[in-house]
Amino acid sequence: MIQFSNYQKYFGPQLIVDIPALDLAQGIYWLKGENGSGKTTLIKSIAGLIPFEGNISVAATDIKQNRTKYRDIVNYAEAEPLYPSFLTGSDLVRFYTKTKKASDQQVATLIKSFGVQDYIDNKIGTYSSGMAKKLSLVLGFIGNPTLILLDEPLITLDVASVKTLQDLIVEHYSAGASFLVTSHQDLLNGLIAKMAQEPGGNATQPVVHQFRKLTFTRLT
Amino acid sequence: MNNVLTKVIVARFYQVNAGFFLALFLLLFGIMSGKETVMFHYAIMQAIMGSWLFLSLAMALWMLYNVKCISFCLKELDRPENSFLFNLQAISDRQQFKLLAACYFELYLPVIIYGTITLVIGVKEAHYLTAATFLLFQLAMCLAGALVCFYTINGTWKKPAFTLPSLDPFPRKNISSSLLHFSLSQRKGTFIAIKLFSILLLQIMVAANAEKESREAVCVLIMFLISAHALLPMYYVRFMEKELSFLRNTSLSLMRRFFIYVLTYAVIFIPELLFLLWNERAVLSLQVIFSLYALAVSQLSLYTSILYIKKVTTERYTTVIFAIFFITLLLLAALSLWFVFLAESVLAIILFLSLYWNYEMIEAKSE
Fold this sequence. Notes:
- The structure holds 2 protein chains of 2 kinds.
- Chain A is of the alpha/beta class.
- Chain A has helices spanning 39-46, 67-73, 89-99, 104-114, 129-141, 159-174, 185-197; strands spanning 2-11, 14-24, 28-32, 53-58, 61-62, 74-77, 147-151, 178-182, 207-211, 214-218.
- In chain A, 36% of the residues lie in helices and 26% in strands.
């Protein structure tokens, strides 16, 4: 599902991430690594937001070859979301709905599930960091993504929203989507327990891939 | 999508450049009477259409405006809070280009309005070749702007063709010189552009007044030169209060904090000082040259203190700079350079000392 070939990322002369070859099947992956190991850098590379050496393709689509399709199938919610303070949440939701070719019904359900509807028409400058984080998660699930990249999705999130997030991950995974998540253990423990409760679901033996200081652990 | 692009790029462009457009409007339409203004612009438009030299000059000026628009777009697209715009990659090239071209058209609108009237005059007076050249040029400008935006949005994963290396030659850094290091590393592009523009202004002054300088002309030019540097205090205050915010937790005296800024301005105006000493000694006295230098340093220090006033956004700051520009010119017409320098320095110190501890950074979120 995600294929890396000769992927390298340098900061100046320093090689930060190096993945010569890796093929990750559909699943939920926990990306681990110490501070500065390149977790966010790798996630941003997969999201196609920063330059890198080599190739990354998702569902056989390479951003360097088919930008439009790649952007349709890869969604990204950043760790500390920043949006222009003068826009409203609705402005952004409408923008994402059109670019991601999503249905209004899907978006309305997402907004309701995270409880964003109460402040969605307010300017983002008035949002707390938790409110902005929920908005970024709503945006991260809009459309029909094959891969959703979640960078520290639990930061500033309240307990109720953590549960919503777990439900959404399980629901999208069951529908065929994959996840690459950098997070604390809490979310993942919750996810593993939830997956085990799913009909026919079971917490499989984790598969681990290690590259320099980064580890991919497959949870499902 | 169009609505978001208009809010994020077009509306911000006109907000940020409100002072620039106001000054330009006053200069072009506010000095002469109504009838004289119409005649003046009619003559300019006729000259543009009737002479290849004037046409080239006009095109050079409009190209500069286009560069300003393009660099604004690039800066906005590079801001972390606007990174959501990369989602435009999900729509087709054609649809995306249409959106960006419409957005860029709105940025270039002032030139298009003036240009269309010029074009009508050109066609009416049968200057078909210059009119056609002019039309093609305007189309090329709009197209160039839209294309740059298009390639920037769709090139997030591509390596930049060229990156300016760090210009900071000093390995040892200390707090007092931190703003200089910041200028030479993180803001090197802007810094070089401002310094080149500043030296160009001085060169124009030297060329235009080879025989005898008029004090008024020199003062106006120096004020333009200082205003061209007005962006730097904004970057510096933001840098000091964000990246060096830990300094607030140290025992540095307030005056020392203020002098970090003053020292920086004193250093960055050295090229202009040397230029004046080298080229203008014959027409300007040493006293005038050094008082101009001191005025430049005090003026930027005053701008810095103003940035510590609560809720000073970019738009408000631009308006204040515009007001200070005219007030200083009026003062310079009546008072000595040293007196204006002294008054501005005292005001800058008082403002800084009284505002520093009450400052709360709001720009990180709203700018």
